[in-house]
Amino acid sequence: MGKRTVDAAELDGDTDAPMGAEVATPSWTLTRAHIPATAKKIYCVLRGHRPGFYFEWYGANGAEKQVSGFRDNLFVSFPRSKKGSIQSSGAEHTIRDAVNYMNHSAAGCTYGCGSKCHGQTPVPVSGSTQPPPTAKMKPIAQAVPAEKRAPSAPSDRESQSKTFGNVSRTAAHERGHAFCRRCCNMRTVAGERLCQPCRTSKDFQDRIRACADDFSLVPEQLEALRLVAEGKNVFVTGPAGTGKSRILGAVRDLLEKEDLSCTVVAPTGIAALAVGGTTIHTYAGWSVRLAQGSLEAVCEVAHQKQVWKRFSDTDVLIIDEISMVEANMLTRLSAMMDEALSTPDDLRPFGGIQVFITGDFLQLPPVQPFQTCLECGDDLKQEQKDAYTCPRHGISYDEDKWAFRSPVWKACNFANVQLHNIHRQADAAYTTILHSIRKGRPLSMQQEKALTSPIAGVDYDKAMKLSPKRREVDLINDSHMQALSSPLRKYRCVDDFLWHPHHPEYADAAEPDKKSRAPLASLHNHRYEDDLELREGMRVLLLANLDIESGLVNGSQGRVVSFEAIADERMPRAKTKSSKDAASNGEILISHKNRHYAADRIRDFRRRATDQFWPVVQFDNGIKRTIFADCSITELGKIEPYSLLSRTQIPLIAGWAITIHKSQGMTLKNVVVNLDQCFAPGQAYVALSRAKLLTGMTVQTMPSASRLKPDRIVEAFMEQTFERMVAERCTS
């Protein structure tokens, strides 16, 4: 802690004066000599157990210990940018900002302290660098009636009052939206997170437009980005190919530039890894069983230190693939976050955190909903076709499985955006067919014939077969594989988790007995295979964007034509800053920021591989390419350097057939589809929307008309939500 200049008169001041009383505020000073060479931030604790300057967040002399357990704490870190450092921002500039903050008064406050900054600084012993004994640290929360206390997060021994990590806003400002989250000064209208001056400022609007340009957003996508940037809870939906994932990427980019921390979650591992996020289970700290537990059981987990920290570190929660999120899952997650972050007299959905939800309810539905009772956690019995019974709490109906049927949905008061412009399909006739199927409208004889007639552009032997059932997919792939006489080569994936201690919320990943709740567990559903089997002559599907300019992207199809012996000079390696660094031997140069980590994992894959050969694939677009192992990385944590979760594997799978579920998000050029066994609403639409052109798809079997119809509850929700919006625009 930096030395403070305090004279004798100040030490005799009345430091126990009631809140708001006029008392002499001593002057804080800080020089460059006080700052350790290793310090990256200056943490300024204005209200806490021991006010002062700190140069680390965690640790015995860290700022976290000074604000934890201190109600209405006030603290800021400088530089304000989460990615900035003292050196990058200029030491003198950073010191000046820190001193100005510690010495500011309520009259000139621009930090959003809520009039709590004047006369509230206790006077420590001059020059002390240690906090006072623990016995003398009496948290203010102890003097507050239990029913009025702020919710708590646990320490190693006992619960502590809530803090929100390295942010410049107090709990009341951050979660209760009393002050603008951008300027931390102006009060906001109830339910808003930005003040009017900030929303309309040129700087803010320019940032939004620049982000939209970077991601090539069309006007309807820009509207969604603007609503999220303004701090509203937003629901974005639309048909496949309308750019929902592109908006998600733009939102993440803009929020990071606004120094806001966003967490992306999805209901399945495949969906989460596709958008660089994590599963809802991992984020909430749920085991498989706890995810089906009672509200009381899941709320108990909210007070676990690691879970609470994940919640409190989140400024914006992004939930992708919402159609597969069960209503009770959404209710459980919101209840946990309420428990962790809200005050008992001011409960808010998701603890007041901003929520951005994307997905299409006309696609895949929740899998196996209503396994247990939301109230007690007991197993439900399906005594009727669409009803699930708990002896103590009554019946749950299948129609209530959708996320929008959760009471949380209405409480979020979403701004709704429906996307219409389809960018994946370039064929107008095909787009019309897909629109009809998505809406459950009957196809004309001409349209059905266009789907089912053999098309010259579809090579049946090379085509990817899509089926709703995994058993049929396995039979197709196994039969083709067994027909090949070439040697079988096997490749085992390499999973890794590089954990940094400043991400304690992921510490349990290192404990083998807790893998069911660790980040590594999400890799079990990774798009890369656990064990990959390859043979010369087999059809394969590429699972990575290998070379976009050459058309080698996720979903590209081809055939293994040979195998190449692994050679040191051809191993993928990290690109360096040297201008002479070039791929002289045709090796891959890894250029992303985690390139050295990725290169190490690929070398580890090589050391462990039984077969020391890379597959060579002739793709259907004519390009022949050696396919090396790829390290797929997900960054975890809010503070750099991030913890890294990875799977390293050759990014191929058997390419004769895949399930419709696994095809979600892919764009395929040569597809044969069987739809007669579709068993869930949205499956037919997901399968048919995988191709860009009608000339690239043949439908062998069509589902019955009843199975093409969308869920009636979803249909009613969409009409009520978006037709009402159109009516409101017409009358305004």
Structure description:
It is a single chain. This protein has 732 residues and is of the alpha/beta class. The protein folds into four domains: 137 residues, no CATH class; 185 residues, Rossmann fold, CATH 3.40.50.300; 33 residues; 274 residues, no CATH class. 28% of the residues lie in helices and 18% in strands. The strands form nine sheets. It has a six-stranded parallel beta sheet. The chain starts with 7 loop residues before the first helix and ends with a helix. The N terminus and C terminus are likely disordered. It catalyses: ATP + H2O = ADP + phosphate + H(+). One of its GO terms (molecular function) is hydrolase activity. Its cofactor is Mg(2+). It comes from Pseudocercospora fuligena.
Give average pLDDT, whole number.
78
Helix content: 25-40%
What topology, given as strand order, has the largest sheet? 8-7-9-10-6-14
Number of helices: 23
For the secondary structure, the number of strands is 30
Terminal residue distance: 58 Å
Radius of gyration: 28 Å
Gross morphology? globular
Q: Indicate the low-confidence ranges by residue numbers.
A: 1-25, 119-176, 512-517, 726-732
- The percentage of residues in β strands lies in 15-25%
What class, by secondary structure content?
alpha/beta
How many separate structural domains? Answer: 4
Oligomeric category: single chain
